[in-house]
Amino acid sequence: MHSEAFRHWSQKAAEWGADYRDGLRDLPVRPRLEPGQVLNTIAASPPEAAEPMDEIFADFEAKIVPGMTHWQHPRFFAYFPANAAPVSVVAEYLVSAMAAQCMLWQTSPAATELETRVVDWMRQALGLPKSFAGVIQDSASSATLAAVLTMRERALDWQGNKSGLSAAPRIRVYCSEHVHTSIDRAIWISGIGDDNLVRIPSEGRFRALSPEGLDAAIVEDRNNGLLPAGIIACVGGTSVGGTDDVAAVVGVARRHGLYVHVDAAWAGSAMICPEFRHFWAGVEGVDSIVFNPHKWLGAQFDCSIQFIRDPESLVRTLAIRPEFLKTHGRDGITNYSEWSVPLGRRFRALKLWFLLRAHGLDGLRGMIRNHVRWSEGLAQRLGREVDFEITSEPMLSLFSFRHAPPGVDDLDDHNLALVEAINRDGRIYLTQTRLDGRAVIRFQAGQFEATEADVDTAFEVIVEIARAAG
Ligand SMILES: *Cc1c(COP(=O)(O)O)cnc(C)c1O
Hints:
Helix content is about 40%, strand content about 15%. With about 475 residues, the chain is an alpha/beta fold. The strands form 3 sheets. Strands 1-9-8-7-6-2-3 form a 7-stranded mixed sheet, sandwiched between helices. A 4-stranded antiparallel sheet has the order 10-11-13-12, with helices on one face. Pyridoxal-5'-phosphate binds next to helix 5. This is Aromatic-L-amino-acid decarboxylase.
């Protein structure tokens, strides 16, 4: 592509992006199509000859866009949000134009130093103490893997990477029953093994793991010659927002000398509001925390921050330093590739810098407070309808409910069919989960452009479709 064409198509893409965002409210949130429908419209073999850009772009509009689920739709209430505030999209365009590999300080000094700065901005924004350093990872899954590998190496006196695990005692890691599947996978990949992920029964409104149960499990494992390594606490679980008592977990960990990692991938964004920080009280005592500005905060995917109290232990676990990566004694230089599993790194700090400056913390706090308030309001409204039941009260902006009209035999089937009918309708998008063995419907308000009227629409759609279904 020549320079003039690059300019033309970049402008075209920018125009398209703005039109797309403006028109989202009129689109169904989830596309109405059958599996294979898009695949069948794409040529089965690659082109031998160059094709004109006009045609490529026209195909994008005709074949791809109608098959997209619109995550930036204001009535996206499913999963958790993956907000990409327009200003972060602009930053991503610039990043992608420069397309730098930011693995070492010298491969992009500004990317490294801006990352150091904006991660520290976020530390201050979340009210974390100065003792935490941090790094931007691609995903919470990677951050949790890095934390689990660090737990493992610390417990094995840094011998695991070298000697493997075959001669090592069995390592044990503890968590509640409500952690995200990324924890399971970190345990598998790190060679610790699913049998050694000990799930402590949870209790109470926030389904926190029992500290007594945790303590007892650690003591029993020690007595049996196993090697307790660390605990993963959850703040704002994916299903219904399950939240552990971090202070209590830290207390148990201290007694036994264990590492604590906190998964606050979604809920971490809310901690820019001081009034929500009670949800992770005690967090200043943990070893690492992951939170995703690419979820609720508005930094275009991917952008996951891992805060670490002792980065040296992480670097000791992950740094390799072959000759060609050495920066030869330039002291005070951070090479962030030594803080993460992948070597190559995108320039992820720029969008966060743009976002924080363009909205200010106050602007972002306002958005989060609105979402929490609207969600609480919707839970109250639905709870007042006789045929609806709130199955978990709001944790921040997430709650679950189910439709339970008299005379329906299988409420699980009924509610699963209801979610499907709502999503086929397209005005809003929701997802289901299982809670205490029952199928329930999740609702979270969190989309960057959502308004209170969009949440009102959610109420109307849910009630209308539920009652039409009987
Ligand atoms: C979304 C989520 C994750 C996974 O995040 P990725 O960045 O997609 O890996 C992990 N834990 C919780 C609680 C989440 O909500």
